[in-house]
Amino acid sequence: MPKYLGAIFDLDGVLVDTAKYHFLAWKKLADQLNIPFTEEDNEQLKGVSRVKSLDILLSLGKKSYSEDERKCFMEKKNEDYVHYISQMDESEILPGVVQLLDQLRLQQIKIALGSASKNSGLILRNTKLQTYFDAIVDGNDVSKAKPDPEVFLLGAQKLGVPASRCMVFEDAKAGIEAAKQAGMLAIGVGTKKNLPNADVLFENLEALDLSVL
Predict the structure, then answer these.
(1) Tell me: the pLDDT tens digits for 40-49?
(2) Domains of the chain and any CATH numbers
(3) CB 18 within 8 A of CB 28
(4) Of residues 12, 17, 31, 68, which has the active-site annotation?
(5) What pTM value is reported for the model?
(6) Is 10 among the residues known to form the active site?
(7) What tens digit of pLDDT does each residue of 63-92 get?
(8) Which of 10, 55, 68, 134 is catalytic?
């Protein structure tokens, strides 16, 4: 029996290249609010909820708004983001993803999505990745954002696999922390600088060797 029976994937920046679309949508809002916002600032938003992301953006401009205004900002950002991702196709799948998913299926390891995104269904359909997943948990299913482990624990529950026998693939600090809090193997996709606490680290999924896990 393999040590790991379940694999849970973050979506943005791990399976597909949507980080650029999040940046464009947040950047558009920031410009409208006269808040300086760079790609480096955008790193702080990776893996966290839309509400928390807005908090971070507004803190950069030292601005505060009413709940109604904040709600409008988030809706506008999401409208812009959905416009971008509605034009996605398989070309947006990151290198090594399909090969890894095929390997996991061959080894009969169950696969789940564990994402903060509320638009995961649209992205998976447009990229034709949905058939790989035995379970999907996203921002529509959870009340606590990463680094809370809720999304991964629910993913393991839906897979019917103990948390200790799940591995998580993440590109964000908050996601790595959530995986570790869930008692899962935290596999970082990125750099040591950005993901210092990952249990295992790969520059990208093309470089990943399942045998070392």
Answers:
(1) 999 888 777 7
(2) 6-17+90-212 (3.40.50.1000), 19-85 (1.10.150.240)
(3) no
(4) 12
(5) 0.85
(6) yes
(7) 999 999 999 999 999 999 999 999 999 999
(8) 10
